[in-house]
Amino acid sequence: MYEAGDVRVEDAPDPVIEQPTDAVVRVVRSCVCGSDLHPYHNLAAADGPAPIGHEFIGVVEELGSEVSGLDRGDLVVSPFAFADNTCAYCREGLHTSCPNGGWYGNGGVGGAQAEAVRVPQAQGTLVKLPAGVDEGLLPSLLTLADVYGTGYHAAFRAGVEPGDSVTVIGDGAVGLLAVLSAGELGAERIILMGRHKDRTDLGRFFGATDVVAERGEEGIARVREMTGGHGTRAVLEAVGHLPAYETAVGVVRPGGVISRVGVPQYEDAPVGFGSLFGPNVSLTGGPAPVRAYIDALLPAVLDGSLEPGRVFDRTVTLDEVPDGYRAMDRREALKVMITF
Amino acid sequence: MYEAGDVRVEDAPDPVIEQPTDAVVRVVRSCVCGSDLHPYHNLAAADGPAPIGHEFIGVVEELGSEVSGLDRGDLVVSPFAFADNTCAYCREGLHTSCPNGGWYGNGGVGGAQAEAVRVPQAQGTLVKLPAGVDEGLLPSLLTLADVYGTGYHAAFRAGVEPGDSVTVIGDGAVGLLAVLSAGELGAERIILMGRHKDRTDLGRFFGATDVVAERGEEGIARVREMTGGHGTRAVLEAVGHLPAYETAVGVVRPGGVISRVGVPQYEDAPVGFGSLFGPNVSLTGGPAPVRAYIDALLPAVLDGSLEPGRVFDRTVTLDEVPDGYRAMDRREALKVMITF
């Protein structure tokens, strides 16, 4: 990505093992993330060009000398953040705070919208998938790299439990999988705020009980009206822009929780007496430690009982990735998968 | 309170029963709260004069026709917010969000720095104390009206549990009782940030294991140094000014929680990737539903095993209340009790 709006596919040297804890993975499926749209809108030319992409399934091609438990030829999925999976933070399930961890596309590690990726901390990061897995499952398995785990993080951090009432803000892939996750955790009522009917229809398929297409004050009033004036106990915010935060404050029940997984495009926001403090509302969330959730989420994906991969509604080749960005930016595609 | 810095004691008509759910209570002990200092610094003349005070122990003098479970002559303590104790919010322990509740000194209800108070929702609000309780226990019992329950709320909402690490920001009465509460909930390490030695000494008596007198960046660096660079899992913020919030962000461990009970004197604050979101830090707290905690906190106060009343270090008569404000404002007194 050279700058906002300018994504190019270029030849680059194949990645090689740099640390004994590295692996090189040949990518089989990758995709474009809603969070990639933030730099697609904002990246300054001075900060580019930058490799991009952080979600992939691939085949292990090379292994550093200190990596065990993986073999060349293994099919693996990678969480969007790499981590050692052994430190105190990882053991607590907070892999995104691992001191040996980091992010694809940063600090000399390539992006995953590429033919191959160097994976630092490969042993702690990569999760082996069954050999010979049905190709039809790859889209759902790919969501374990980010969007399913991120939607799950929103619901998990909000403490969603059986009988709960939940509002999900945002009908992107993460919002829709937050709906799925809230339902899996037992939420009884799931109000999805989104205005793209094809997406909110998928949200209903994933378990949304109500859809609110209105935004801003009107959307807040609608959710309050639907909840006896109270709002819902949990609000899962899967957008990242300040108006979504303000909507979350508007629809959360006193004593409830706003759980954010949309990467905030703001630093300051209302938290005082008139927003969070007065009604004892909690704010939680952050970048999802998806590695912590993969083991639990994998079985229902493998047996086909859950299909988070339905969020992919367009497939492109690597050469067509710039078109993929455009399609997602124009909301013509919900989520774009890249095949190789 | 006429305006900032101007507190006067005036004759006022005795309160009378206005609603069948009211009681009139003759005050035996009242006090000045750290939160009363906020209007003492900021109240505009146009917003005054306003009755003030919200903490008291007293004797029931009159009862509305719909109040049961209380008798004239009962010694009672009142939470700083009145509430019906029957609605959905009260049943969840969130009395400060009771739709029939409210705050002393507002909306036609008098303040508690007075000889008598009208108590709305008396049946749900007032907690009866044993007849003939030792007068020496009154200061500790008085803390159940606010500062002990508020300190407890900070620790409770932060989920403090055995073995935990906690930083308490602020050496006022609430901060010191947050220390006491964190210890009661089993915290192993309690770092108290405060710079008044007589207060932090009381904090040590209440269970603080470490004291950090430095403030701002220096204080943050000190706490990080003491915690292997990580910060503590829980941070209890008992001040309410923005620098205290910033300190909380600086000393909280990734994945940890900031629990606020200092009334925020700001509306916007940092919550983005660089503060709360990136490290998955949660923010919680609000006005304490102290009614929810009184039953649990009362026994250890009555049997003398805990002495939260040690926060009172000066006693004044009602006529001397303006002096009490001055003493607290100048940090000459930690907390001022009013006798009648």
What does this protein look like?
Two copies of one chain form a homodimer. Helix content of chain A is 29%, strand content 22%. Chain A is built from twelve helices and 16 strands. Chain A has 340 residues and is of the alpha/beta class. In chain A, strands 1, 2, 3, 6, 7, 15 and 16 form a seven-stranded mixed beta sheet that branches. Chain A has a six-stranded parallel beta sheet with strand order 10-9-8-11-12-14, sandwiched between helices. In chain A, strands 4-5 form a two-stranded antiparallel ribbon. Chain A folds into two domains: 23-146 and 289-339, Alpha-Beta Complex (Quinone Oxidoreductase, Chain A, domain 1), CATH 3.90.180.10; 151-285, 3-Layer(aba) Sandwich (Rossmann fold).
Write the layout of secondary structure elements.
2 copies of one chain form a homodimer.
Chain A: E1 23-31, H1 37-42, E2 56-63, E3 75-78, E4 81-82, H2 88-91, E5 102-103, E6 116-119, H3 122-125, E7 127-128, H4 138-142, H5 147-157, E8 165-169, H6 173-184, E9 189-193, H7 197-206, E10 210-212, H8 216-226, E11 232-237, H9 242-251, E12 252-260, E13 268-270, H10 273-277, E14 282-285, H11 291-302, E15 314-317, H12 321-329, E16 336-339
Parallel strand pairs in A: 8-9, 8-11, 9-10, 11-12, 12-14, 15-16
Antiparallel strand pairs in A: 1-2, 1-6, 1-16, 2-3, 3-7, 4-5
Helix pairs in contact in A: 5-6, 6-7, 8-9
Whole-number average pLDDT of chain A?
97
According to CATH, the fold-level topology of the largest domain in chain A is: Quinone Oxidoreductase, Chain A, domain 1
Quaternary arrangement of the chains shown? homodimer
At the first level of CATH, the class of the largest domain in chain A is Alpha Beta
Largest interface: A-B, 35 and 34 residues
CATH homologous superfamily grouping of the largest domain in chain A: Medium-chain alcohol dehydrogenases, catalytic domain
Runs of chain A in which pLDDT lies below 50 for 5 or more consecutive residues are none
Tally of distinct domains of chain A:
2
* Rough outline of chain A: globular
Structural class of chain A: alpha/beta
Taken as a percent bin, the fraction of beta residues of chain A is: 15-25%
Largest sheet composition of chain A: 7 strands, mixed
Tally of individual helices of chain A: 12
- Please state the second-level CATH architecture of the largest domain in chain A: Alpha-Beta Complex
InterPro entries (chains A, B): ADH-like_C, ADH-like_N, ADH_Zn_CS, GroES-like_sf, NAD(P)-bd_dom_sf
Keywords (chains A, B): Metal-binding, Oxidoreductase, Zinc
Family (chains A, B): Belongs to the zinc-containing alcohol dehydrogenase family.
Protein name (chains A, B): Zinc-binding dehydrogenase
